[in-house]
């Protein structure tokens, strides 16, 4: 994938808080991309929700191959769409095929299996994300959706394995693909 982002004020403390319930995990994401913009629409299990004011989106790739599209909610929870498969048939469009959603709040978590996809429309070089649009349905036919419009600025890409700060959270951010709560 040609994605080129993480200044959002969310960074590693945000990710550590999100991944804390999965404390048995090991390793750090191989790539983290932060995207600035505006949350336009979100629905969780058919219920409208709001993103945290001024929040962006974080795209991360875990060592086990899972990909997460993560965003904070206005009520303090953090939501992440999770997928194991993706494709990029054209340089300006990326597809993540969703397998679950995970919502974390104050050390507790909710997870549900999903079927759906996130589509990211971006510049041809991947440095500017224009739109993130996720739609999915859980096993009870409840709808999940998320639409985020990038602000037109370049994304910020980090490779945390090289960062001492990222290494402090290494026990929180990855797991064996067959025994992972994400």
Keywords summarizing the entry:
182 residues; mainly beta; disordered N terminus
What is the element layout, followed by pairings?
Layout: H1 11-19, E1 31-35, E2 37-44, E3 47-48, E4 57-61, E5 67-72, E6 78-90, E7 93-105, E8 108-122, E9 129-138, E10 143-150, E11 156-158, H2 164-168
Antiparallel strand pairs: 1-4, 1-11, 2-3, 2-10, 4-5, 5-6, 6-7, 7-8, 8-9, 9-10
How does this structure look, described?
With 182 residues, the chain is mainly β. It has two helices and eleven strands. The chain has helices at residues 11-19, 164-168; strands spanning 31-35, 37-44, 47-48, 57-61, 67-72, 78-90, 93-105, 108-122, 129-138, 143-150, 156-158. An eleven-stranded antiparallel sheet has the order 3-2-10-9-8-7-6-5-4-1-11, with helices on one face. The protein is globular and about 40 Å long. 38% of the residues are buried.
């Amino acid at each position: 994938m040609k994605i080129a982002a993480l200044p959002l004020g969310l960074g590693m403390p945000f990710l550590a808080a999100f991944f804390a319930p999965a404390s048995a995990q090991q390793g750090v994401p191989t790539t983290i991309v932060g995207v600035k913009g505006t949350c336009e629409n979100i629905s969780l299990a058919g219920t409208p929700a709001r993103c945290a004011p001024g929040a962006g989106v974080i795209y991360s790739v875990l060592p086990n191959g899972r990909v997460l599209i993560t965003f904070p909610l206005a009520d303090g929870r953090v939501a992440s769409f999770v997928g194991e498969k993706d494709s990029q048939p054209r340089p300006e469009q990326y597809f993540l095929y969703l397998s679950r959603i995970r919502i974390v709040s104050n050390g507790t978590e909710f997870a549900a299996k999903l079927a759906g996809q996130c589509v990211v429309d971006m510049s041809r070089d991947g440095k500017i994300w224009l739109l993130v649009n996720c739609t999915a349905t859980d096993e009870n036919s409840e709808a999940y959706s998320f639409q985020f419009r990038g602000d037109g600025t370049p994304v910020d890409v980090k490779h945390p394995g090289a960062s001492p700060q990222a290494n402090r959270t290494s026990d929180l951010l990855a797991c064996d693909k067959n025994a992972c709560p994400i």
